[in-house]
Amino acid sequence: MSHPAYARLIAETHAELGFGNMAARREKVSRWESGRTVPELGTQLAMAHVHRVSEKDVRRLGWPHWLHLATDDDALLEQPWTPQGAISATRRTAQPGREGTRSYLAVTGPVLEAQIKKALAALASPQQPPAQDGHFVNPDRLAGIEARTRALEVQGAGSSATPMTLHHAARAGHRLVGRLLATGGYDRPTGTRLLLLATRTAALCGYFNSCLGDEAGAERYDLTAIRSAAAAGSRRHAAACMSRLAILHLIAGDARDALSLVNAAQSLTPRPSPRFDAFLLAREALALARLGEARRSTQALDRATALVTGAPDEGPPTDGFGFGIGIDEGHLNFGYGYAWHYLGDQKKALAHFAPFLAPSTAQVPPRTARRLLYVVDAHLSLGDLDAAVDSAYRAVDLIGSLPPGLADQYRRRFVPYLAEAPVSDLLPHLADHPAS
């Protein structure tokens, strides 16, 4: 349903429930979804009525923590923290048509805390891996899927393919693994391999979704990846997935939720490798920056930089999933830029972004167009509209055509400048195109 249609539906329901008349403006829906505005209680109750969520749950959980009850995420969250629950969750997220149904993070606050606690409990008392009868999963075929997954993970650091192309490939891999888990025949060691593959394919889908500006879709995949990692008994995979989910909460949610996820990830890896330790510290630093804690944030980034400087190349892990392996001084330099952006010092942020903006022949990370939003924000904060417009053009050039989530986020930045000629020329290039 479009934003205008949804706004009209909520306004009509608001009146029917006796809460009075309200303006049906699409801008309201955008502000609700972005987290910039908390709807009044009457508006929330009208929304809940439409989505068949009880008033009791709205009042008990509060905004935005009741929103997961308005989607099928509730069924996903209610899956048991067992191998079978992980298989069911993988199958649900692998089904076509599951993406693009919302544009906000639904699992937040106490609901997210409950999920974290359940994941930690599952990892503390791992169950036997799954095994079942069915058409035998050939080990050679499984090795081929692992190799293709690893290739996609490598391209996650830099690729000549567009993020949309990588997104389609990741989804295809995730659907295949979900089907093998649900219908294939395998012993327990193979069941563990399949669960780890499900973790990796879900994490890749989440990553590429976020690259395309679909944080809500990424959230579903990351939650599924955490569940699969817990079912496989892999603390390191679960920690990496939690840190990935933390980034989504930094982008589109609450920094306190991001910090909770990072702290949980750190608790799972008491003796991490230097680069993985730096990977987690960098995310902790950004959460602290979002919370306004400049000293603690820069200290965490300084510690991460010290760990990476001179650290040996760890090479690809034997079980794949090399998140954090590619972290280097350049990655952390951009982290400083993020931190200063969150702390409100846009000149310092741009100074750290500068190396990233320099012309390069290297392959482009799929997240580049998503990263450029921060550059646009920094330029606009400093009053440099031309530089902000140039950064937006660069994003379009990199990604080909913008999917709805990313296009909307770019357009939103330029709304106050619609009367300016450079923005009028830019807007046709920010028209969105379906990601799937």
From TrEMBL:
InterPro entries: TPR-like_helical_dom_sf. SUPFAM superfamilies: TPR-like. This is Transcriptional regulator.
